């Protein structure tokens, strides 16, 4: 047993070997960053293992996803429940950042999880609005495309040209003053994101409460049609008949009860948040343009470097 050495003893022996004298002079001890990987692994054995997936901010992120999926379930039939679940999911977006700073648990996984959750939830809501307002479907489709494209290109440009350790929120003022303000000022970021979501939530509520935007809410069923419905005829005068075969079923009646709401507050929410929503779309456009130019600048520099290397080889 005396002749058997552990990995930690081997690491200590290697460090002692690095400190031996050369030509009578003591050689410098190998710096940690230049040490062999297995030695560094042994030196870290005493540190407790961390599970990134169970960090508090990431647990909040999982809760956001669960709430968002639940809101999607209620989205076509119960606007109040959907709005409550969706709003809580959005508000937790600010809480995970606070938890990350408070517990020193900021991670790249958490940042990506947060951004992906934001993009997916907003896209799902806009998809519903496209079906609720088919005349404006192309506008909602363009907003989804702009949101996804601008964030993807911005993230890719940051990783490719800024380095793997650079956050997509670290935008230099020289590149874009507006993007720098948007990403570095937490108040601006929170207000812009919150009111942007509030605008689309307001539109969602108006699809259930405003006859101006949803004329089918004003339509009534005449007696002759009501008699036909009793006999099993299909009617396309309201959203109920599109979802339920029997407009007088328990599900249809529950939906009718849930949809009895006044349109005043949805109009207020939509009107107040509209300017901020427009600002957010401007930010997305600038983000897309700046990321495209940054990538193009990187391509130009890479091509120049390739030509220099080719010229040296020819010489």
Can you lay out the helices and strands and say which pair or pack?
Elements (H helix, E strand, L loop, with lengths): L6 H12 L2 E2 L2 E2 L10 H7 L12 H19 L4 H24 L5 H25 L4 H26 L14 H8 L1 H24 L13 H8 L8 H5 L6 H9 L5 H51 L1
Antiparallel strand pairs: 1-2
Helix pairs in contact: 1-2, 3-4, 3-5, 4-8, 5-6, 5-8, 6-12, 7-8, 8-12
Strand tally, please? 2
Helix/strand structural class: mainly alpha
In round numbers, the mean pLDDT is: 80
The rounded distance between the terminal residues' Cα atoms is 62 Å
Radius of gyration: 29 Å
- What is the spatial order of strands in the main beta sheet? 1-2
Summarize the amount of helix as a percent range.
Answer: 55-70%
For the largest beta-sheet, the strand count, sense and barrel status come to: 2 strands, antiparallel
Beta percentage is under 5%
Region (Disordered): 1-29
Organism: Podospora pseudocomata
Family: Belongs to the CDP-alcohol phosphatidyltransferase class-I family.
Keywords: Lipid metabolism, Membrane, Phospholipid metabolism, Transferase, Transmembrane, Transmembrane helix
């Amino acid at each position: 047993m005396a002749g058997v050495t552990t990995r930690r003893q081997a690491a200590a022996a290697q460090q002692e070997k690095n400190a031996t004298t050369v030509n009578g002079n003591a050689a410098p001890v190998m710096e940690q960053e230049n040490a062999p990987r297995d030695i560094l692994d042994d030196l870290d054995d005493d540190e407790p293992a961390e599970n990134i997936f169970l960090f508090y901010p990431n647990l909040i992120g999982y809760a956001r996803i669960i709430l968002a999926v639940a809101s999607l379930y209620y989205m076509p039939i119960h606007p109040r429940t959907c709005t409550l679940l969706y709003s809580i999911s959005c508000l937790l977006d600010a809480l995970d950042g606070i938890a990350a700073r408070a517990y020193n648990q900021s991670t790249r996984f958490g940042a990506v999880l947060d951004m992906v959750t934001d993009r997916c939830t907003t896209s799902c809501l806009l998809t519903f609005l496209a079906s609720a307002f088919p005349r404006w479907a192309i506008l909602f489709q363009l907003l989804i495309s702009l949101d996804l494209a601008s964030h993807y290109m911005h993230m890719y440009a940051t990783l490719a040209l800024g380095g793997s350790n650079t956050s997509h929120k670290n935008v230099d003022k020289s590149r874009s003053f507006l993007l720098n303000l948007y990403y570095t000022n937490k108040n601006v970021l929170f207000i812009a994101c919150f009111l942007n979501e509030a605008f689309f939530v307001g539109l969602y509520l108006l699809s259930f409460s405003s006859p101006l935007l949803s004329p089918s809410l004003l339509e009534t069923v005449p007696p002759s049609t009501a008699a036909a419905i009793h006999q099993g005829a299909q009617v396309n005068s309201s959203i109920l008949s599109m979802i339920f075969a029997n407009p007088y079923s328990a599900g249809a009646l529950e939906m009718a009860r849930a949809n009895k709401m006044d349109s005043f507050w949805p109009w207020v929410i939509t009107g107040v948040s509209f300017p901020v929503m427009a600002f957010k779309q401007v930010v997305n456009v600038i983000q897309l343009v700046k990321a495209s130019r940054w990538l193009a600048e990187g391509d130009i520099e890479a091509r120049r470097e390739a030509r220099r290397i080719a010229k040296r080889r020819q010489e």
